[in-house]
Write the structure tokens for this entry.
Amino acid sequence: MAADDLLTLKAAAEQYSVTYDRLRRAAWDGRLPTEGTGHARLVRSEHVETFLREGRVVPGREAPPPKRTAPPLGKIIAVALLKGGTGKTTSTLNLGVALGQRGYRVLLVDTDHQCSLTSAAGLNPAELAPEQTLFGAIQLWTTQLREDLHNVIQTSPAGVDIVPASIRLSLTERALHLQNRREYVLQSILAPVAPQYDIVLIDTQPASSNLVHNALVAAHEVIIPVEPEQLAVESLGLMLDQIDEVRRSRLNPHLKLCGVLVTQVDVRMTLHRDLLSEIREQFSSDLPVFNTVIRRSSKIAESQARHQSVLQYDPKGSGATAYRALAEEISREWE
């Protein structure tokens, strides 16, 4: 078939007088086959016409999981700890995919200039123009007070929507510092799109910054992933202090702690077993600590190297099972 039969989703929306969002969601849930990835995702005219005429899954495509029919929850959860290597990005991606498999509409937001979540979800940050990323959305807001996140959101190969990051996010620290009401920039950008999703998961930087502060102000709840290492346990206390500061300053007085997630656990190690017990004993009386723990797994590491969620890479393995259990534990109060 000729290459000129291929259209971008935006071009197809204009040509057939339908909304871009309608085609994007059809591409996400399998009703409209696509070629390429991210903003390079293309559709064939004949497939668009079939979809608009029949509104069905194209033969040969696996049917998507059923979606919730209830109104979107619009819940925003930041995944945060002021330390690297604790599984923030891994847990953001895999929890998001697991929630998607339960029928929830999920949006991931990558606020880290290292672009780890963007890459792990199957997108190539180097192929994205700045305006196709969170950096572009922040720049648009800080220079023109306009939000346009709808045109930044992409459907990732992991099967959930994502606001990708850019290495240029490292340049936003000064811009945010000079911005009036700088703590509310991310909240303002997310406001029009969050109500269209059940869950928005924000992956944060592993250090204190304006963007981390923005994530805490924008969020309804926080998940804190910690590994059973002494430094990570100490970092948990610092994170709790920052959450308390956001509450006491009235920037987000109703910010809740969704739970502490213990990750990268090796039950064969005495130190890990002891620290896991210490975390539960020291914090569980005052803080919610998830019953689900994420054990150290070679399959999780391999899935990251393949730019996939562990639920895609090893769907029947212990890592995928743990993140499904976490999704069930978190969503129990919503169902």
Summary: The longest strand covers residues 256-262. Residues 3-54 form one domain.
